[in-house]
From TrEMBL:
Coiled coil: none annotated. Gene3D superfamilies: NAD(P)-binding Rossmann-like Domain. Pfam families: NAD_binding_10. Residues 7-192 form the NAD(P)-binding domain. It comes from the Bacteria. This is Sugar epimerase YhfK. PANTHER family: FLAVIN REDUCTASE-RELATED, UPF0659 PROTEIN YMR090W.
Amino acid sequence: MKVLVVGANGQIGKHLVSFIQDSENLEAKAMIRKQEQASYFEELGAETAVADLEDDIETIAKVAEGVDAIVFTAGSGPHTGPDKTILIDLDGAVKTIKAAEAAGVKRFVMVSSFDTSREAIQAAPSSFAPYVAAKHYADEWLKRTDLNYTIIHPGRLTNDPGTGQVEAAYEVERGEIPREDVASVIAETLEDQSTIGKEFQVVGGTTPIKEAVKSI
């Protein structure tokens, strides 16, 4: 399965491309914003494509041609304003979904926020509410398509080394999770067809990732 990783140059994305390239069943195509970011992925043997989430749908669809799955793990980052949150986390996600449809890619994995419910938007601090709202509507848009989607809601992200163990379910208690483990969960999700049409929260835990994903 050839997987287009959107947001490949992010911290989760880099781990994910590495995991995919180590897999017997998966191969990665890394979508990057700048050509100078390509060397990291080329050293892993991954194909690269330069495109920006602020480009039009047709540009993103061209990058998606020939792949079997798309993972959206892009984000505007914590140091941008609500304008970039809307353009990347919401509009960029929706354009990628529409690009998948245009390119005939059925499998779509969305990396979302831990809680994107309407209640979470209302409860969020004013500085964080636009991000939660953007993720909420991107998730809702994906769920209304005919794509074979999975939505992953990770807990608070850390840069700790991965443990290979998590807790995953439709609802779990809030907690932390290393970005490396999130990437491993994504890779396992791609290989487990039983996750199609599901969404789940995931935090650090005591269950091996393969087993945790299988139990969703």
